[in-house]
Amino acid sequence: MSLHYIPRVTQLDAVNLDEQVEELLKQQLHQATKYLEPGILQPILPELELLIRSWIFKYSICNNRSTFGQQMLSLSYKKDNFARSKLFWYYGYTVGLKYLKERATYSFTSNTKIQNFFHTLETFQVVGDVLNFLRFVQSGRHPVLVDFILRLEMSADKLTREDLTDFSWTRELLWHNFIELIGTVISLMNLIGVRKRLSCVLKLMWWRWHSASAPGAAAASMDVNTLCAYCSSRPVLPHTMGCSHVFCYYCVKANKDADEDFPCPKCYYQGKEIKRFVIAAS
Length: 282
Hints:
single chain, mainly alpha, Herpes Virus-1, 2 domains, two-stranded antiparallel sheet, elongated, membrane, zinc-finger
């Protein structure tokens, strides 16, 4: 009798085992060819990895309707909804797309259009993986995106691990995958853009009060004790932005380029124009 509920941790374990099986085969290939002359296998490396992934697909999904990781944990896809036509889509998504991207990286390095196309495609795929993982955490079904796209259902005759009720172990695995999710999301974020939008919100809530109580534009002055208002060091190429404080040119210029509403960190004056500070001759 098959089990209708499969713990999320078991499904994530199967995905991790599949990745480890592929890496293990790649390591075996590298060990077997490490004494060859350097550069011989480099031009055909995408084809070698294609053969490895095709071999894994043939003797796992194609023959048994389950990956090697799933077989280790007594899991499998339900064969009644895994038609032969879905095999081709599964192979194209999990094997074909990786090969095309790797071959394009090796053969069309200088072709900007092709590189941008695959970069955009990879970005959409990563975003899809992130959204699918969030859905999986909630529903407990389809741990990888291709399973959700093809509507592949998983079944299990038994649970091979007896410690699945150990909640600390469950939390550890889910937390590990959640940390990877956060790292992926951060890598896709435009931090400067987020900082700029956050600054706009803060100005309405907090900076407005400081700006109201801050003095207006005043003449800047500089002596031997003057420090940059941003880096607190001796000003290099002194510049001002309309208030009485002096900045290094690169400090104020870099911040203004990143955020045109950058305020003086000392008095919160929002100058729109930076000018070179000229010391008047006495």
